[in-house]
């Protein structure tokens, strides 16, 4: 099983257990909203552009709402469980494109629940996540107001944010650093060091792709 398939199955199992009204770390979204988002992203390319482009966000939100109106929650989760669109036809593309998305959203659901605990990530997935962080750190941290030095526990350093000015050192596992760079700063298990003001600015910044 690929990492994308593993995260997809685990996320859908969790969505099934929690039901449609559970909270997530995605601002204002329930598990029902998140399931609709994932279906839209894979099966409605005409509306997916609004995920990243604000001028098109209204259309994306409308399509997402229509998916909820047309599909009961269990049906939407069932659609998420099976890779849709081109990802269903090309498994290698599902692994390349969706592993990070599914990992992050799996944690968005897990960490929004009371009493959540960190989970163990396999060494192979840890290496894959770090490879993506080290390659994409500049993009994910492009809106950081301060320089960022990412230190992976187990080895590896990546840089992001402004090249001049104060810098904040962020230390954690590859999975925690990924979540931090995706804008989940308050819910990650990392160690921050540097100027207190710079740390505060980084923690409140809107990060991510």
Arithmetic mean pLDDT: 91
- Uncertain runs: none
Radius of gyration: 17 Å
How big a fraction of the residues is strand? 5-15%
Helix content: 55-70%
Span from first to last CA?
A: 27 Å
General description of the model:
This protein has 209 residues and is an alpha+beta fold. It has two domains: 108 residues, no CATH class; 82 residues, Nonspecific Lipid-transfer Protein, Chain A (2-Layer Sandwich), CATH 3.30.1050. It is 55% helix and 9% strand. The protein contains ten helices and four strands; from the N terminus they run H-H-H-H-H-H-H-H-E-E-E-H-E-H. The protein has a four-stranded mixed beta sheet. Strand 1 and strand 2 form a beta hairpin.
Q: How would you concisely characterize the structure shown here?
A:
This protein is an alpha+beta fold and 209 residues long. The chain is built from ten helices and four strands.
Keywords:
globular, four-stranded mixed beta sheet, 2 domains, Nonspecific Lipid-transfer Protein, Chain A, CHP03085, TIGR03085 family protein, alpha+beta, single chain, 209 residues, DinB/YfiT-like
């Amino acid at each position: 099983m690929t990492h994308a398939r593993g995260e997809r199955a685990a996320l859908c199992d969790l969505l099934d257990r929690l039901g449609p009204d559970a909270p997530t770390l995605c601002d204002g979204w329930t598990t029902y909203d998140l399931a609709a988002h994932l279906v839209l992203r894979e099966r409605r390319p005409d509306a997916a552009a609004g995920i990243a482009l604000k001028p098109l966000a209204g259309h994306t939100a409308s399509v997402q709402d229509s998916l909820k109106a047309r599909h009961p929650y269990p049906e939407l989760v069932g659609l998420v469980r099976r890779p849709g669109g081109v990802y269903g036809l090309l498994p290698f593309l599902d692994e390349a494109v969706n592993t990070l998305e599914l990992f992050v959203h799996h944690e968005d659901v897990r960490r929004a629940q009371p009493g959540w605990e960190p989970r163990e990530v396999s060494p192979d997935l840890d290496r894959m996540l770090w490879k993506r962080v080290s390659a994409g750190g500049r993009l994910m941290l492009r809106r950081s107001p301060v320089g960022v030095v990412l230190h992976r526990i187990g080895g590896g350093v990546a840089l992001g944010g402004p090249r001049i000015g104060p810098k904040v050192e962020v230390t954690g596992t590859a999975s925690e650093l990924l979540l931090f760079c995706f804008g989940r700063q308050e819910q990650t298990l990392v160690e921050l060091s540097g100027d207190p003001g710079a740390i505060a600015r980084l923690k409140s910044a809107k990060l991510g792709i």
